[in-house]
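Dear Dr. H.,

I hope your travels went smoothly. While you were away I took the liberty of generating a structure for the chain from your last submission, since the lab meeting agenda had it listed for discussion. I wanted you to have the full record in hand beforehand rather than looking at slides cold. The sequence, exactly as received, is reproduced here:
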Amino acid sequence: MSEKFVLATHNPKKLEEMREILSRLGVEVVSPADVGAEIEVEETGSTFAENAMLKAKAISEAAKLPAIADDSGLCVDALNGGPGVYSARYGGEELDDRGRYMLLLNNMRGQTTRAAHFACAIACVFPNGETLTAEGRCDGAVAFAPIGTGGFGYDPVFLVPEKGKTFGQLSPEEKHAISHRGKALAAFAEKLGTYLGR
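The corresponding predicted structure, in token form, is as follows:
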């Protein structure tokens, strides 16, 4: 019998990705809509880990099932770690992905220090109150202009030095192998496998 876990997301790509990874553990991943637990959770945490935990706890309580949530973003050294937890809301709700990365490039004008990293935190909350967490990080730099059309968010302006390409130029497989999310998911799957005794 497979166990049901709710993934706190409206993003079909994230759902597909988590299904693929956790199906190996005999885990069935469903969306909040599938179990009637569609609630808006305010991300008031000051870290990615806090936001992921807030979402996982709220969805687990609403669905009475184990819930998984993640939070991630871009942290730029020259901007004191910004946009960080505000990555998805950088510059205000009215901006789209392109608007956000163009604002970032604008704010980076004249900066010689381009170091940045993507961070991802995953939290899993069980109805009994037990929790599992995992984190991943990918170091890189902010490009001087957008390159590539792949991925989403800040991918076209996040340069991976060892690849000599932005996330926007990498294939989904290449990106997954080195990305903050790929690393966090791998660590999480391993911890969950141990927890479930698989």
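Two observations you may find useful: The two ends are 13 Å apart (CA to CA). The beta strands are 3-7, 27-30, 67-76, 82-83, 115-125, 131-142, 158-160, 165-166.

With kind regards,
E. W.
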